[in-house]
Amino acid sequence: MTSPQSRRPAEFVERALCVLAHPDDIDFGSAGTVATWTADGTEVTYLIVTDGDAGGLDDTPRDRMGPLRRAEQEAAAKAVGVTDVRFLGYPDGRLELTLDLRRDISRVIRQVRPQRVLTSSPERVWDRIGASHPDHMTVGESTLRAVYPDARNPFAFSELLADEGLEAWTVSEVWLTASPRTDHVVDVTDVVELKFAALKSHVSQVGHMDDLEQFVTDWMRQNGRRLGLPQGRLGEAFHVVHTA
């Protein structure tokens, strides 16, 4: 008998929701994968929890950084075929696991009704600490709690149904990025230029990186080699959790 976690992810889903902490999180880890989904006809929505106003390396005034990074994320999304980009506006660098955050993510799950949700892993990666920003882990855990049990339970956050008319929705699978237990790889070799276009939209964050393409290519080549892609192919890696 096949265990739930040994099942392969669905070949195609109609709708996918990507829930990440900051503008550019999706593009470093998953923009190539998103490009393959949109090419296949999947409707993809981005939900970015903060505006990334604590990011950046120059002297851009803090009150301008949030709007700038929103615009950069919208441009990056268009590069891989995504036009529905939403922001929750929580403070960058100060996310906590709260009922309000769970409710706000649950609301968007019920609005979008995705079969697949992509988010960051709530587990810390000890050998690559940069992958485990506290905001990333908080968003990952909050999203998993929104997927189960909140979004599917009509009696959880009952105001979503009573006041907003949002029916309960069950997500079938969750893809976790930056996980210490990756078990699935997407070959993004043929769409890598779209990924680079998305990444380069985040000028405030990567404009200083002369070696951006080489750095990301080396990283994806390691993913491909580790998870069984043919020699030289580029991969984005995930831990897929079946939730229905």
From TrEMBL:
<keyword id="KW-0862">Zinc</keyword>
<dbReference type="GO" id="GO:0016137">
    <property type="term" value="P:glycoside metabolic process"/>
</dbReference>
<dbReference type="GO" id="GO:0016811">
    <property type="term" value="F:hydrolase activity, acting on carbon-nitrogen (but not peptide) bonds, in linear amides"/>
</dbReference>
<dbReference type="InterPro" id="IPR003737">
    <property type="entry name" value="GlcNAc_PI_deacetylase-related"/>
</dbReference>
<dbReference type="Pfam" id="PF02585">
    <property type="entry name" value="PIG-L"/>
</dbReference>
<dbReference type="InterPro" id="IPR024078">
    <property type="entry name" value="LmbE-like_dom_sf"/>
</dbReference>
<protein>
    <submittedName>
        <fullName>N-acetylglucosaminyl deacetylase, LmbE family</fullName>
    </submittedName>
</protein>
